[in-house]
Amino acid sequence: DKRHGKGCVIYKGNENKIAETYEGDWFEGKIQGKGTYFFADGGVYEGDWVDGKMEGKGLYKYLNGNKYEGDWFNDMKNGYGVLTYVNGEMYEGYWKDDKVHGKGTLTYTKGDKYIGEWKFARKSGEGELIYASGDKFKGEWKNDKANGFGILLYSNGNKYEGEWVDDQRHGFGTFTCKEDGSIYSGNYAFNRREGQGTLIFLDGIIIEGLWNSGVLTKVTKFQLAPSSPWNDPDL
């Protein structure tokens, strides 16, 4: 008396109203093979089933317009798949137990794009974030933010290479200014130069000093450019 082969089953809820519907293959009383399931929350799954669970390849359309197409295991997104959001965002990559996990690419509505590693739906590991503005960050991530070593290439040609904490330049870093070719190497705190730092200009002038909230407050060493006539003590 077990369902076997193709068939349609209607599940009724309160007041004898149709709650959920399944159309597709059965094997020894269980949903198995290919079939379409209409859920009570408005979602629709069309794809492979194993032992009564979504498993294999399948397409899930959510009531809000989002849709996922890819691998399933144990009724959850597992493996490779693409989730397209109704707002224009799209994730292409790997999943674990319904969460973004592993390598993947997320394209945001405004055009920003993250390509890299994820851990339980958060950016974690090595990754690159390409901003719609033209800025590019490549480096280490933790808990959805830049944490560790990373390089930020600004759209105007400037470059920061160094340490990050929670999306801010924090720790030791080197900043190259495209406008005049000068290079700052030193400490940062909360996105600004802080503490000991050295500024080297293209003509060879070197300034070492202390910085406070991005401002040079004390010069501890000043070195003229090698070509400067003031290097001649007899001038």
How would you portray this structure in words?
- The protein has a 19-stranded antiparallel sheet, with no helix packed on it.
- It is an all-beta fold.
- It has strands at residues 5-12, 18-27, 30-38, 44-50, 53-61, 67-73, 76-84, 90-96, 99-107, 113-119, 122-130, 136-142, 145-153, 159-165, 168-176, 183-189, 192-200, 206-212, 215-223.
- It is rod-shaped, with a radius of gyration of 29 Å.
- It has a domain at 110-231: Histone H3 K4-specific methyltransferase SET7/9 N-terminal domain (Single Sheet).
- Strand 3 and strand 4 form a beta hairpin.
- The mean pLDDT is 95.
CATH overall fold name of the domain at 110-231: Histone H3 K4-specific methyltransferase SET7/9 N-terminal domain
Q: Assign the structural class, choosing from mainly alpha, mainly beta, alpha/beta, alpha+beta, or little secondary structure.
A: mainly beta
CATH hierarchy class name of the domain at 110-231 = Mainly Beta
Instruction: Please name the fourth-level CATH homologous superfamily of the domain at 110-231.
Output: Histone H3 K4-specific methyltransferase SET7/9 N-terminal domain
Question: In the CATH classification, which architecture of the domain at 110-231 applies?
Answer: Single Sheet
Q: Beta-strand level of the residues, as a percent range? A: over 45%
Cα shape = rod-shaped
How can the largest sheet be summarized? 19 strands, antiparallel
Strand runs, count: 19
Question: Count of DSSP helices?
Answer: 0
Pfam families: MORN
Keywords: Repeat
InterPro entries: MORN (IPR003409)
Protein name: MORN repeat-containing protein 1, putative
